[in-house]
Specification:
Blueprint (H helix, E strand, L loop, with lengths): L19 H13 L9 H5 L5 H12 L10 H14 L3 H5 L7 H18 L13 H5 L5 H27 L10 H7 L1 H12 L1 H5 L1 H8 L2 E3 L7 H4 L26 E2 L14 H7 L2 E4 L16 H15 L26 H5 L3
Antiparallel strand pairs: 1-3, 2-3
Helix pairs in contact: 8-15, 9-15
The structure holds a DNA duplex (21 and 21 nucleotides).
DNA sequence: AATGCACTCAACCGCACATCT
DNA sequence: CAGATGTGCGGTTGAGTGCAT
């Protein structure tokens, strides 16, 4: 469609850095009017020689009272890397998970610090895969979105595995309060973004799973995970020819889920266990519907599901057990961990 | 002290999507 | 329904700053 930029033909508008006076004018206007209203008309009403776009940017990136200034903490940096691994350059979505931080700030941090850090570790900052890896070239055709999706699914599945391990080892009953983190994440911008990705991504449409489950209302996840563990490794999802593979990440109407805590041999829990686990996983999924995902009340889910979600979040947000993020300390040379140990799987799946 | 270079980050630009008319 | 308008997003730029030579 296209449209003319809001301030192209207004040559008298000021550009460049904002003066304290301009900041004050903008702040005063917004506080007096309990909001910015229409950005286009704001400059005139506020007495600013700026275009509305410039005002909005100044407000959202600098003047908004809830903006957290100052350097990023280690935890924030870790979270950004993890989220970038799953979401790619969706700065706004990433920013939504870091209260007080703006997308611009995060983007700058990424471009100036984090990306270089990953490169110095031999990790491709776009794919989060080792730069020199053979599988990288094999997977060259796989979209970043596919990899991100695979990481999500991998994390979720490993969370389930961990849940199962934990429950069988410790019979731990989770606190209610710690159950819904993943659901919150899922219902947040991150999950929303991912759902968009999973429904729009070509891979998702072409995958045997989605084809199968789009034509079948009910399916079993028992085979779901078989290849997922390899997704970030040497195989691609699109290349999976396993007819039994049913891959429909997250496309579950929780109200219709009958979730049985799966049981498996805990000795098999490790890095490989998905093939083993999944043979014993049983849950029945009816009426997969992307838009309905997690839309149902959380309370309708069993505790097991919630616990799984909690664990998934932990896996998503936990760092490798060695927690070796020394490049954040500005010295990549001190980095002892080899790139191979720092594949996305190890980032999100510290089993 | 002067110069050059690298780095940071605020701001701009163009595009895409949502909403309005 | 089509076009206009508003807004958000991601990529890029360039002024300011600090450090090395």
């Amino acid at each position: 469609m296209g449209r003319t930029p809001c301030c192209d033909n207004k040559k008298d508008l000021k550009k460049g850095p904002w003066s304290p006076e301009e900041d004050e004018l903008l702040l005063n206007y917004i506080s007096k009017n309990h909001g910015h209203g229409s950005w286009r008309s704001l400059p005139k009403l506020a007495g600013l020689q700026r275009c509305g776009k410039s005002c909005r940017l100044r407000w959202t990136n600098y003047l908004k009272p809830d903006i957290k200034r100052g350097p990023f903490s280690k935890d924030e940096e870790k979270l950004i890397i993890q989220l970038h691994g799953m979401l790619g350059n969706r700065w706004a979505t990433i920013a939504s998970q870091l209260p007080g931080r703006t997308d611009n700030e995060i983007k700058n941090l990424w471009n100036t610090h984090l990306r270089k850090g990953l490169v110095s570790m031999g990790i491709d900052p776009q794919t989060h895969e080792p730069l020199s890896s053979n599988c990288l070239s094999n997977n060259a055709s796989a979209s970043a979105a596919t990899r991100h999706m695979a990481q999500w699914e991998s994390a979720r599945l490993e969370a389930e595995a961990r849940l199962s391990r934990d429950s069988s080892l410790f019979s731990r009953v989770p606190e209610k309060s710690e159950c819904d983190h993943f659901l919150r994440l899922w219902n947040s911008e991150v999950g929303k973004s991912f759902r968009k990705l999973s429904t729009s991504d070509k891979f998702a449409c072409q995958s045997p799973i989605s084809q199968a489950s789009s034509s079948t209302k009910c399916g079993s996840l028992s085979a779901v995970t078989t290849e997922v563990g390899n997704l970030t490794g040497s195989s691609t999802m699109a290349g999976n020819q396993n007819e039994d593979l049913i891959y429909r990440p997250f496309l579950v109407n929780t109200e219709d889920v009958e979730y049985k805590p799966f049981q498996f041999n805990t000795e098999e829990v490790g890095y490989k266990p998905f093939q083993s686990i999944t043979e014993e996983v049983e849950f029945k999924i009816c009426q997969s519907n992307t838009e309905d995902v997690m839309a149902g009340s959380v309370s309708s889910c069993s505790n097991d599901l919630e616990d799984s979600s909690d664990t998934a979040l932990q896996l998503l947000l936990d760092y490798p057990t060695n927690d070796d993020m020394s490049f954040l300390e500005n010295n990549a040379n001190d980095y002892a961990t080899t790139p191979a140990e720092l594949t996305p799987n190890s980032f999100i799946c510290p089993l």
